[in-house]
Amino acid sequence: MSVALHRPRPEDPGAHPAPSDLVVVGAGAMGGWSAWFARAGGAGPDGRGGGGRSVTLLDAWGPGNPRASSGDETRIIRSSHGTDRLYARWSRRALELWKRHAEAWGVELFLPSGVLWLAHGATGWEADSAAALTELGVPHERLAPEEAARRWPQIRTDDLDHLLWEPEAGALRARDACLAVAAAVQRAGGRYAVASVRPGRSAGGRLLDVVDGEGRRWAGESFLFAAGPWLPRLFPELLGDAIRATRQEVLFFGPEAGDRRFHWGSLPAWCDVHDAIYGVGATDAWGMKIASDRYGPSFDPTDGERVVTREGIAEVRTYLAHRFPDLARAPLAGSRVCQYETTIDGHFLLARHPEWENVWLAGGGSGHGFKHGPRIGEHLVLRMDGAPEAEGEERFRIGPRTPGAAPRGGGDLPAAEPPTR
């Protein structure tokens, strides 16, 4: 299977873009997969839901761009979600869809590295996750530190209580995936264009179109705004304080030439809830990815400078020296500044607009939304087709939320506290 991708080609809509059954604003994980299921179908357990709509997919800068919440090189996909069974089930369904579509499209999107959770105590997140995985029949192992050290000697484990191993989990090629999904939408007959739009005219409880910076109007029967951290700007009265963007640093440390111990094929993706830090083995020419999961300061996703700080680098190097001592002096081979776009309780926002019956909103990925992308797209298209809200899905509604209610998975870890508003 090739890493090379079919890339989407932005279309020139002319002065008067043709109307579509569905206009999707935002080509990240949520918007791109929704556009795919709306156009190509295959949603739901029987594979018959969705499909058949004419679709226009719009993005201000293009799929996987550096400003997007769905950017970066890799993201972790795992089923451990503490006590939360719904996200565990969604993750398993998403993994099935990731693998199925990657194979059909002939691209490598899923990296089967497995995921290793570093447990500092006998109880807590890892133990809760193991209980849920057992109930749901998801393969996993509880490893003693000595056993983990034998399998992966590049990791220091002697200060851990145990390690939770998810062998069927791994990592996703994030930016490449966004491009692949948008390209698949085009190949299926959907349209894709680069345009920054806002809600336009409305009448009779329905939105009629969105308008871009050049005054062009994109009409549709239905609309999905999957604009992540930009949703509060598009709907300030409705979502003004519902989602907050925070600044997050991602670092890549390069091992010596020929040292494959820190490649994703030799090292599992790993998560340390206690120290709020996680990582993914090296992919292609990139070094091992490592990032703090602590919420950063508020961040402007449009105009914010994306340069990492010396303090952030120093913090991660201290962790490396302890947990991955052979990388302690490795050079910083690359860096990124991305953002979490987080709801107050850490649950996604996937809901119909309360005033426009033909408008749906998707955002609040809260750092762990990417891996759920196919399941979120499937869910939204089924809801558009009239499927009822299932048990547990009321968490996705617009309205009051309880801070810290969810075992949040920002950056693929469950942070203890949501960002303050």
What does this structure look like?
- The protein is of the alpha+beta class.
- It is about 25% helix and about 25% strand.
- Strands 1, 2, 9, 10, 13, 14, 20 and 21 form an 8-stranded mixed beta sheet that branches. The chain has an 8-stranded mixed beta sheet with strand order 6-7-5-16-17-18-15-19, with helices on both faces.
- The N and C termini lie far apart (about 45 Å).
- The model has no long low-confidence stretch (mean pLDDT about 95).
Q: Helix and strand string, N-terminal first?
A: EHEEHEEHEHEEHEEEEEEHHEEEEHEEEH
Low-confidence stretches: none
Q: Assign the CATH class of the largest domain.
A: Alpha Beta
| Total of helices | 9
Largest sheet: 8 strands, mixed
Distance between the termini: 44 Å
Q: Quick check: average pLDDT?
A: 93
Shape: globular
The percent of residues in helical segments reads 10-25%
Which percent range describes the beta-strand content? 15-25%
Radius of gyration: 21 Å
- CATH structural fold name of the largest domain: FAD/NAD(P)-binding domain
Query: How many strands appear in the DSSP assignment?
Result: 21
CATH architecture of the largest domain: 3-Layer(bba) Sandwich
